[in-house]
Amino acid sequence: MNRIYIAIVILLLALLAGCVSTNVANDVTPPSFKSGVEAFVANRSADKLSEEDRSVMVRAARDLEKATPEPGLKVGMSASDFQLSNAFGKEVKLSERLEGGPVVLVFYRGAWCPFCNIELNALQSSLPYFSKYNASLIAVTPQRPDKSKEQLDKSKYTFEILSDLDDSVMKAYNLYFEVPQELHELYKNRFSFDITAYNGKDRLGLPIPGTFVIDQNGIIQASYAKTDYKKRMEPEDIINALKALSETRNSCK
Questions:
Q1: DSSP labels for 14-51?
Q2: Which residues in the chain show pLDDT less than 50?
Q3: In the prediction, which pLDDT does 253 show?
Q4: Which residue(s) pair with 136 in the sheet?
Q5: What are residue 160's phi and psi, to 5 degrees?
Q6: CA 164, CA 169: separation in Å to the nearest integer?
Q7: CA-CA distance, 250 to 116, in Å (whole number)?
Q8: Under the phi-then-psi rule, with left for phi > 0, alpha for psi from -120 to 50, and beta for the rest, what region is 102?
């Protein structure tokens, strides 16, 4: 009897272990932007900025925060409609895209920005999660379409990248700012980031990185924008916003 009892217990434990492992395997955590940044910082060159270089960056960050203390449109506001060209010359309109489901709208500085690339890679990996809620991803940047095409070819992104060549959309979402000339020179000489090589001659306008989850009525349901370009909305938070939107919509049916 004892042997039979022990055998049954062992079988039940084995089945339970199988169920647990299956559930864990199915409950995959979405990629983290913060973890990507930490890995990048840990592995990048150990070269130190000079005090002069550091003062330029600190001054630019302080001035931007002072000029735009509350960047980005807020939850409950109507998302400004727009129509921009993608990397292949096709016009994409936000309101038309919203007809098919919610939109995750992301503004990023350009392919030259390593923190933007970390964010876009995390978002690309999160697309299967977004599609569960019938949501699509649109990224807006001031860089020229040919630079976006190079980025798409290199990174194999499958979402839309649109070029805001007159800065109107960045301004409509309260994200636009001009990079100070001294910071532009520092980017070029210290990091080999020439913004005008991506945006075009004399164009030093960039967006404060921002993310908006927009429902099908064009209302912003989640918003995140920080003047510190090293901070972005986590994919997990985007997914939670889409989940909440889906639950609210289903409860109203």
A1: HHHHHHHHHHHHHSPPPP-HHHHHHHHHHHS--PPPPH
A2: 1-27, 46
A3: 62
A4: 103
A5: -75, 135
A6: 6
A7: 34
A8: beta
